[in-house]
Amino acid sequence: MENEAVKNYTLITGSSAGTGKQIAIECAKRGFNLFLVSLPETGLESFSDELRKNYSVNVHYLPIDLTKRKSPQKVFEYAQKNKLSINILVNNAGLGFNGKLETLTESLIDTMVLLNVRAATLLTFLFIPEMKKMKKAYILNISSFAGLSPLPYKSVYAATKTYLLFFTQALNRELKGTGISVTSVHPNGISSERAMENIKNSAFAARLASLTPARVAKISLDNMFSENVFVIPGIVNKFYYYIGCSLPHGIILRIIGNIFKKTT
Asked: Are strands 85-91 and 180-185 parallel, antiparallel or unpaired?
């Protein structure tokens, strides 16, 4: 993998903060050239300079809003124009809002669906033909623990993350016999600076399950290169998942609903 990094690039969306930023750092540590995509005015230029300086890798960046209709195509065209061979695609960009469906706005709902679902799908669609020509390529979809169950008071966000889970599993079947493997990662309670206040106000069980973005990034990449299709980072989160699988669905919905109702 390291030998191919000289000519290949890792494309990471939502790469200016949180897990996406840490995935970029982890990739740079491993010697991978980077193509970073994130919203304008999020420090992408200075972050790219920092990675070039600290890790001696090539870094391209494109500040763009992926919820805009033509943005995925513009990302693809930038890669084509600059002759960036994308052998790793990390669909990390995502956004979620709490509350009953009726308390959300049309704009918030659009943002979640367009970013979490449409952007990831179209970027994958656009880059797969070139990736299929490679001996080995990887797609990493950063989903969420929320995508493993219906989530009252977070219904749209959870549904978009479930989409990434099923999308990943279906793609792996479609791409069988090619050099592309697809992985979905389902972190729970990532303790980024922006999320720290929410985590502090959460139940003890939620705080116990939280992981740093750097830890999630390393686990995600390690599992991606091991070609694991479905990944839950952290022993505590795996325990929660298997407990949840053993309980009746109605009980799970009641427990989760009560937890998230308190946070809205």
From this structure: unpaired
